[in-house]
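Handout, section 3.2

Students often ask what a structure token actually looks like in practice. Rather than define it abstractly, here is a full record for D-arabinono-1,4-lactone oxidase. The first block is the sequence as you would receive it.
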Amino acid sequence: MVHLFADSERAFIEKLQCGDAKGFELRNWANTFRCKPQYYLAPETECEVVELVRIAVRHGLTLKPVGAGYSPSDLACTDSVLLNMDKMNRILAHDAYACTLTVEAGVRLHQLNAMLEQRGMALSSLGSISEQSIAGAISTATHSTGMAFGDMSSAITHLVIIDGTGRRRECSATVDPDLFNAARCSIGALGIITQVTIQCEPAFKLHAVQTPDTLDNVLNTLDEVVFSAEHVRFWWFPYTDSVTVWRANRTTLPKQPRAKSYWIDRVIGYHYFQLRLLKSRVTPNDLPGINQEQFAARFDRRIESVDDSYKVFNFDCLFSHHVNEWAVPWEKATDVFRQLQSWIIAEEKKPDGVRVQFPVQARFVKESDVWLSPTYGQTVCYIAIIMYRPYGRAVPYKKYWRVYEDIMRTQGGRPHWAKAHKMYHYDLKSSYPKFDDFMRLRSECDPNGVFVNDYIRRHILPPSEPLLASTTVSQSLTCEKPRL
Ligand SMILES: Cc1cc2nc3c(=O)[nH]c(=O)nc-3n(C[C@H](O)[C@H](O)[C@H](O)COP(=O)(O)OP(=O)(O)OC[C@H]3O[C@@H](n4cnc5c(N)ncnc54)[C@H](O)[C@@H]3O)c2cc1C
């Protein structure tokens, strides 16, 4: 479609064009979703974002900001205007007393870790990787593990968002608290987040100890296990009773980084593993054996390290995979594992039954007041299942996903927003007490549907929602320049 831009608009768009925009294709990290936007632009300032929203409204375009493009779904996809937020990655303010850092929202977490380290601070909790942008991470309630630690959305104390009328809106617990509670996890539906202030803590080291155990033992004593360290997660290896439990605590011990073994970590844990999975595409009955041998080679021993917090939280996620992850009230975790285990055992008895890969991962996250966070009003256990795609090849996963999602639903589960799932408007309405309030705010923030993409249309909007019913553009514009 050709858009009749005014000359000034065209010049503005050309100035923001990102790389070789013609034919640019966005692929997510796992290369499981892709899209070809009509325009691929990289704004550098809030004013430019405001102007882009206004142009989009005038011309009936939609906008989608993308962070690192790590979401394992089409959440960041659009065929209209894609905004690369990488240039909005500056530090805006540092409050040493409050232990907060204010940054532009395109900052990647690895950049943030370095910025914080230079100032003697750290994020209290961090997930498996640090590639995401801070806006992408909070937009999906990205989380780590720890019964006393919330997700990344709940670490935000103030944010700025440009809504779908081009209005710059600030919010915090005391300024526009409804917008604050909605915007901290808003899956890109309310506007473009341009700044966030993050509550951090003084830099710390973590002492991590990983030990083998049995699933029975862990589930039978789950209420002790989850409180046995500040941060606890465990991986179960289907077709075995084996688990590996990872526990980490703040420490003043001297650093002792994890000893890496090229043979175990790279040869067995990456290349051999990938080759075995490739073969299992034609011989799925190999999968139980693969799970057993990987546990024996890599996890059936005590592994210990002391290092800077972010280095200990992060780990190698290997290669492309499908992943599904839902949160259930943490007391329900045992039931979920038992049901999943029974189904996997029953399938194993069938010659052509479903065979699954490891791990099934459990992480624990403290409740929050963020309206659309899966932790809203409940401390949860996130349970993730995974199917690796060896050398990017297809693997069967849909039946496993269906059974898993049915179990999670019956246990009151809520899906991780970044991951492909099958919860829709009416399911979400009954699962999230504040969903209607979120939808009311969405109508106010985005009356023109500027931020609607297929994901938002499919999962968030009611099936009958009309789009682009009117064109409302804010006339008030305040330009904030980066301060530091
Ligand atoms: C290998 C791997 C490991 C992972 N580990 C974890 C983990 O440990 N814990 C966990 O919870 N999740 C994890 N995830 C999921 C990941 O944290 C989320 O998908 C996160 O959203 C990715 O951040 P991103 O910057 O790539 O966002 P994108 O995927 O680029 O975007 C996600 C959403 O945020 C929106 N968005 C981006 N920038 C803005 C902005 N400025 N304003 C408004 N909206 C915006 C996008 O439009 C989109 O809707 C992992 C994913 C992978 C691939």
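Discussion prompt for tutorial groups: The pocket of flavin-adenine dinucleotide is lined by residues 29-30, 64-72, 75-76, 85, 105, 127-129, 132-133, 135-137, 139-140, 142-143, 187-188, 192-193, 317, 416, 418 (CB under 6 Å). How would you have guessed this from the sequence alone?
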